[in-house]
Amino acid sequence: MPEVARETRFMGTVTAMSMHEMQNILAIIRESAGLLGDIMKVNARVDFKHKPTLERTLGHISSQVDRGKGLLEATSRLAHSADADMLEACDLGVHARTLALLSERMVRLKGASVEFTPATRVLPVAVGAIWVLMAGFRAVQWAVGNGAKDCVIRLWIDEGPDFHVLNVAPPSGTTPDLSGLSDLNALLEQGRMEWDGARLKIFFPVSRQD
Q1: In this structure, are residues 130 and 189 in contact, taking their beta carbons and an 8 Å threshold?
Q2: Which of 37, 80, 106, 147 has a CA between 20 and 30 Å from the CA of residue 7?
Q3: What are the pLDDT digits (tens) for 43-62?
């Protein structure tokens, strides 16, 4: 397994601490918006100027706080992926969801979107979290680069007795350039990838640890 540089561990540690503080900030924003919402409900019969606008704004705040919370949790997992206890094994389901969240902006800037099907149980693999995320992110980069505007990149996991498989599917009907995947192999010292004509399959060995 490749080693993680101390600089990477340092950035991960500091980033994780910052993300926890950002979670606290979002919690305060949520509580404040909730308090305003409660006041609005108590005074539901009281009409005043711009009341509909304020109600819509509170709804936007709530939805964006939820979105920010998901992104912060994903960024925190990315930061913790360089921790010593995450370098040999991880939960593929959790980190595939992290991958989907962290790649949304990159995909959206290409005019595309990510469709992720979450795992229904813990899926331990004998690959460190940081390499799962790096390999998956590179695969999504490749997939969106081979798709047209407004396309959908699909991500899901197939379970297996020896390998769990992360599937990254570019839009159907496309003929992707597989030469762009040459650097992905370098990230898969304990796994492998295959292209079956419709999806890129990244195989991660199942962890046998208790």
Answers
A1: no
A2: 106
A3: 878 777 778 888 889 888 98
pLDDT beneath 50: ranges in the chain: none
Exposure letters 32-54 (e unless 16+ CB within 10 A, then b):
ebeeebeeeeeeeeeeeeeeeee
| DSSP label of 207 | P
Question: What six digits make up the tokens of 169?
Answer: 């599917």
> Residue 174 and residue 63: Cα distance in Å, rounded?
34
CA-CA-CA-CA torsion sign (101, 123, 128, 14): positive
Euclidean distance between CA atoms 138 and 104, whole angstroms? 13
Structure tokens at 20: 């926890």
- Rounded Cα distance between 115 and 68, Å, is 18
Residue that is written with structure tokens 């899926």 in the block: 123
CA atoms of 26 and 7, how far apart (whole Å): 28
Distance, CA of 102 to CA of 117 (rounded, Å): 15
- Here the tokens at position 75 are 């960024």
Helical residues (DSSP H) of the chain, grouped into ranges: 6-42, 51-80, 92-102, 104-109, 129-145
Q: Half-sphere exposure of residue 168, counting CA atoms within 13 Å on the CB side?
A: 31
